[in-house]
TrEMBL record:
Organism: Pleurotus ostreatus
One Pfam family named in its UniProt record: zf-MYND
Record-level Gene Ontology MF annotations: zinc ion binding
Top-level division of the source organism's lineage: Eukaryota
Keywords assigned by UniProt, alphabetized: Metal-binding, Zinc, Zinc-finger
UniProt xrefs under SUPFAM superfamilies: HIT/MYND zinc finger-like
Signal peptide: none
Gene3D superfamilies linked to this entry: 6.10.140.2220
Domain MYND-type: 243-279
Protein name as annotated: MYND-type domain-containing protein
Keyword flag Transcription: no
Length: 284
């Protein structure tokens, strides 16, 4: 049994870590009211708000692989609830709750590493309307919640543009409607020209610029060509065996998370030691 993982000279029990990750993800979902049966119409109280932010920030100082395990557990178990709640939350009347939901979306591991986020974004029913809603919120000035900033919200919008079905948008070019895309193009351009923009961190600047470029490329190419070809390209990068030292094409899919893929049993067994920590059965 390979029950431990060694990180920087310290041994961690994988079973313990996985249990912790699931527990912490569940706590976050509870605090963010994702399990409430009755739709929340009030905003977060100052205390609840502080408690959630304290939890999120306390996690961020942990080693990367633990943070990743926690948010993978969250994505597998609660992403569909997060999206459903966000859709019924008003930026105007529940700004704290709204900003927190967007913040949680931006903290999740990127689609390339996160089969649950890919699955969610590709589900037309689950994600319907969300691209427009988050796009409009960005235009209306959704409050940034650290560690997210404008760059992180741009990353989220780009992930939606690439992975969500383009037929969700009014012109079929991308999941976000034309007028919202135009607004986003102007806003990301204006942000780059704002005084002091060069002083914000490099990641934020890069992502705002990249989002602006993507919005322009979507308009330049016919129909949904930009979206579909970019997605094909990214999917092509996921074709290889999940045992990174292998290099073969993958033919086998992990039956539990349906995300990790391998060339065969040997590589699956080899990768399981680490994959175990990120492997969850999605709840949606
Ligand atoms: Zn292999
Ligand atoms: Zn798996």
């Amino acid at each position: 049994m390979s029950g431990t993982i060694n990180i920087k000279g310290k041994n961690y029990s994988i079973e313990g870590l996985t249990k912790d990750a699931v527990g912490i993800a569940q706590m976050l979902a509870e605090k963010a009211r994702l399990y409430d049966a009755v739709a929340a119409v009030r905003d977060l109280s100052a205390e609840d708000d502080k408690e959630i932010q304290t939890q999120i920030h306390a996690q961020l100082i942990l080693p990367d692989f633990i943070i990743r395990a926690e948010y993978m557990a969250f994505a597998a178990n609660s992403l569909h609830l997060l999206g459903a709640r966000l859709r019924h939350t008003s930026l105007q009347y529940q700004p704290k709750l709204f900003a927190t939901y967007v913040q949680i979306f931006t903290i999740l591991p990127e689609p390339k590493l996160n089969p649950f986020l890919r699955k969610y974004l590709q589900d037309k029913d689950l994600v319907q309307g969300l691209g427009n809603q988050i796009g409009r919120a960005f235009l209306d000035g959704v409050p940034w919640r650290k560690p997210s900033g404008p760059g992180h919200i741009c990353t989220l919008l780009m992930n939606m543009l690439i992975w969500c079905d383009p037929s969700l948008g009014d012109d079929g070019k991308a999941c976000i409607d034309t007028v919202v895309r135009e607004g986003l193009f102007k806003k990301t351009k204006a942000l780059q020209e704002t005084r002091g923009f060069e002083n914000i961190d490099e990641f934020q600047r890069m992502e705002v610029a990249r989002c602006n470029g993507m919005l322009s490329a979507i308009e330049e190419l016919p129909d949904s060509l930009y979206v579909t070809s970019t997605r094909q390209h990214l999917l092509g990068q996921l074709d290889g065996c999940g045992n990174l030292e292998c290099g073969e094409d993958a033919t086998l899919t992990c039956s539990r998370c349906k995300g990790a893929r391998y060339c065969g049993r040997d590589c699956q067994t080899e990768a399981w030691k680490e994959h175990k920590l990120f492997c969850f059965a999605p709840a949606f």
